[in-house]
Amino acid sequence: MQMTPQMALPQISVLNIMSYSNQDSKIGGQAWRCWRRRILGSRHRRKESLHQHSQFRNKNFTLKPSAKNTTAGGWVAMDARSGRILWSTADPSNATASGPVSVANGVLFA
C-alpha cells in the first residue's frame, strides 16, 4: 500500500502498538476491557495507543475528530489513559485493515 499524508503520525513520545479486530464498529465490551487491562494496567503509562480497525461487516464507522463515515477498515489513535479517540483515518483502498500496525521514524505502517 502506498503511504499517504493522512497516515503520518503527529509527534508523540511514547507509543504502544497493538492490533485488534472490532466487528461492531465501536470500542466496547470485551475488546475495551482487554485494552484497558493491557494499556492502563501496565507499569508504564502510555500516552497514545495505535490500532487497526478491521471492518468485516462493512458497517458505518465515524472517523474522529471529523464527522466523516467509512465502511472500510482504518487506523485509530487513542489516548491510553482515557480511551478517547485522538484521530482516525480510513483505508484509502476501501479494504479491510487486517494485520498489525507498526511505527518507524514517526510514520505509521499498516
TrEMBL record:
Originating organism: Ficus carica
Annotated Polar residues bias: 52-69
The protein's name: Uncharacterized protein
Top-level taxon of origin: Eukaryota
UniProt region (Disordered), positions on chain: 46-69
